[in-house]
What does this fold into?
Amino acid sequence: MFLCLCGAMELMPFSDFIGNGETVRRLREMLASDHFPPAVILAGAEGAGKYTLALMLARAMNCLERPTQQAAGRGTPSGGATTGKTMTDGVMSGEPASSQLPDFCGRCSNCTRIALAQDLELRVAEAVEARENLRDTDKKETRIFVQTHPDVLVIPPDPPQLMIKVDQVRHVIQRIYYRPAEGRESVYIFTSSAFMKEAANSLLKVLEEPPKFATIFLLTENPGELLPTIRSRSMIFTLGALPSAEIEGQLVQLRPERNARQRALVARLSEGAMGRALSFDLEGYVASRSHALVMLKAALGAGDHSELFKTTESYRPGAEGREKIESLLRTLYLLLEDLMCLQSGAGQLVRNTDILGELQKMAQAADFAWVQRASEGLGEVERGLRRNLLRSLSLDAFATALERA
Ligand SMILES: [Zn+2]
It folds into this structure.
């Protein structure tokens, strides 16, 4: 029945979630059994899909046309074939039981309004801008929330400290004991586990006596950041890293503008996180990497110094240059890791596959001790940044010290 109503791409929205099929299935099973836990910790790396999944579950909880167990058997679920997408997560394909799992239609008024919260960065920026336009006295007392549906409240870390603050949790407490206005279940999504101490303690009080009609999602890259007492009152689900081959395969359809070489590179650099692969700034990365290569080659005694100084000179002081040098350092670490892989005969783990030949030459010129010294040198540059040393000079010092050694 459900299958006949909708357009091809909107048939089974949970199947749009890439990877971690087993975790998604368990969550949907709990939804089907009406034993969904009041507090769920969704753990996973940045870009693993925690927020996407929480919003999908919020829609499944509140969809007005949600397919129920009774609907099972009347439709003919055929997984990937009906959606026209490559099914790699195994959620729907070839599992008869999966047709009984709750899903969401993606087009009813609850689904569409909840989906408006999907672009979290944009929604938060809007809320921050709205706060900026308030009178000074109101500004101080206004906390950042994202709400596109009356029953789904998203609580992001509040700038500029980027922590969840006690006033945000108080706001949740004020609302959470009221029944949902338009949906079946009210949903609260904390998008970070960086809680101020008082905020965490307040949240704990809610978790001690949660209302039956509310669900709290706590998203975190590291559950260890949450109070043990919060963890023990929640159920933890982890979104694991996807194999890079799987990400590469998904990118064929989702990023067709990239060529095969670029897709292979992005897949390896996104460390198993589909969200990172989709939003990966490849051009920015390649720019950083060309600088990193100039530095490493100079440090290996192979490059010329005028090029080194020209490159490092572009790393200027000030807030603007911070991101640039941070991305350079990340890239340098990645290249050193690749060199280490090559030296230890684990070439299949190299991430910068598109410059393999170049890396192999460098790996021959450097020995293991050199790579280790380079890593230590980068640590030194990082410490220098915190002490506000001149960035260009720190980078020159890094390369020349390695060269002498
Ligand atoms: Zn719906």
The chain is about 50% helix and 10% strand. The mean pLDDT is 88. The CA atoms of residues 21 and 91 lie 5 Å apart. The first strand starts at residue 39 and ends at 44.
